[in-house]
Write a structure and sequence with these properties.
Number of strands: 14
Strand order of the largest sheet: 2-3-5-1-4
Order of helices and strands: HHHEHEEHEHHEEEEEEEEEEHH
Structural class: alpha+beta
Helix content: 40-55%
Strand content: 15-25%
Shape: elongated
Number of helices: 9
Distance between the termini: 191 Å
Length: 436
């Protein structure tokens, strides 16, 4: 009768340990990346271990304490049921958010964020700030889940919201699964401890202790995973990224349009026409419309037209002030008066310097766009008149006089030659007179 009772008790223990090994197999496969073969091997090893110990215990006439094992099984089963009942009362949700906010001063904004979440009972868990050309601060904040939405609204008002990502992860199934596996693993540990208490063989004790250590390690890992989930559920996490606006790159630009019209009136008729047909000798006015189309002031504006033989001293200021900076959106109008010459053509050019906010020159190139006028100048092929004759004669006389002056200038350095020759001739003639 006693032998039969021992056999029944050992069979029950073997069945419970086999169940615990199945739970351990699932733990290894799901949490530690072990494959099914490894988990099955572990379970088989445990079964063989328990079976061998049971055989030796029957041989030695010893048996585990049945009352203690049954009491432990009853207590653990009740704990599992209670835990599952509590979990099923609600959902376990992890709330996380990442907000990117652009502010003028990341240090001041960080202090403002701390004050904002402090009013909700939130806590600043971490802060990483870097300064330099691209200042950046990353703050990690924890708040109660019920204050999650309110915290997001407060943080979004700190500066200009660039981006926002909100995520809710329902981990109820994972929590329930971990709690169930923890309960199963705990039963397995208790059963091994019970076997260790009644084990008498040294070899059995060593094997049981090694297996117990593995099971206890797995149990603590599961409990750690559960604590991590519970902590994440208990407090929502908000990561706030603060940046300052990137320095604006200046883009200076100038647009110049050249036009022309007949007559001289100090530029009162500007702007003129983009195309103009005129005769040789007509009086014309060339207009230059300059507009600052960039985002920086412009100074030291100089306009030339090498095709018309015009430089900056010949221009007439019609509108604006050449000495003052030309601000963005402002316009400057210049004029140049000349006579139509078929041998001339329009070839405008402009030089300009960009200024910063303090009025200092910027070492950057100004983008200049030029639209020049198109002049059709008809050459005068008519017969010359009296005035034209006088002008031609005067020009011819000027040219002759110029040639004479040029020749005289070239001969002056050699005047000593004839003087010297004349002096020698006079000296010889006088000698001849004295000899005779």
């Amino acid at each position: 009768m006693k032998t039969t009772l021992r056999l029944v008790i050992l069979a029950i223990v073997a069945m419970l340990v086999t169940t615990a090994c199945s739970g351990a197999e699932d733990t290894v496969r799901r949490d530690f990346g072990g494959d099914a073969a490894t988990a099955t091997t572990m379970a088989a090893s445990s079964d063989e271990l328990v079976a061998g110990i049971a055989d030796r215990e029957m041989t030695d006439g010893q048996a585990p304490a049945a009352d203690k094992a049954e009491g432990a099984a009853s207590t653990n089963a009740q704990a599992v049921l209670t835990s599952l009942d509590v979990v099923n009362l609600g959902r376990s949700i992890i709330f996380t958010a990442t907000i990117h906010i652009e502010v003028e001063d990341i240090v001041a904004a960080g202090a403002e964020i701390e004050n904002a979440v402090a009013g909700l009972g939130g806590v600043l868990f971490g802060q990483e700030t870097t300064t330099g050309e691209a200042p950046r601060s990353i703050l990690t904040i924890k708040v109660r889940p019920e204050d999650f939405d309110d915290a997001l609204n407060r943080l979004a008002g700190i500066g200009e919201l660039v981006s926002q990502t909100v995520f809710a992860d329902d981990v109820t199934d994972r929590v329930v699964d971990l709690e169930s596996r923890i309960a199963t693993a705990a039963i397995s540990v208790e059963r091994l401890r019970a076997l260790l208490e009644v084990a008498a063989n040294l070899e059995d004790i060593v094997e049981l202790e090694r297996e117990l250590l593995n099971r206890e390690t797995d149990l603590e890992v599961l409990r750690g995973q559960l604590r991590t989930l519970e902590d994440a559920v208990a407090l929502a996490t908000i990561v706030v990224v603060l940046t300052e606006p990137a320095p604006k790159i200046p883009e200076p630009a100038l647009e110049m349009v050249q036009t022309a019209y007949l007559g001289h009136d100090l530029g009162a008729g500007c702007p003129g026409n983009e195309e103009l047909t005129i005769d040789e000798g007509d009086l014309i006015t060339i207009c230059f419309e300059l507009a600052n189309t960039g985002d920086t002031p412009l100074s030291e504006i100089e306009v030339r037209d090498f095709g018309l033989d015009m430089d900056e001293d010949d221009v007439i200021v019609v509108e604006g002030d050449l000495a003052a900076p030309l601000l963005p959106g402002e316009q400057l109008i210049l004029a140049f008066e000349t006579e139509a010459d078929p041998d001339q053509f329009t070839s405008p050019d402009v030089s300009v310097t960009a200024l910063d906010e303090d009025g200092e020159p910027l070492r950057i190139q100004v983008q200049v766009e030029i639209e020049d006028a198109f002049l059709r100048i008809a050459r005068d092929n008519s017969l010359p008149g009296f005035t034209d004759g006088l002008e031609a004669a005067w020009e011819a006389m000027q040219q002759v006089f110029g040639v004479v002056v040029l020749g005289a200038g070239a001969a002056i350095p050699f005047l000593w030659v004839p003087l010297a020759a004349g002096g020698v001739w006079l000296w010889r003639k006088r000698r001849q007179s004295d000899d005779s």
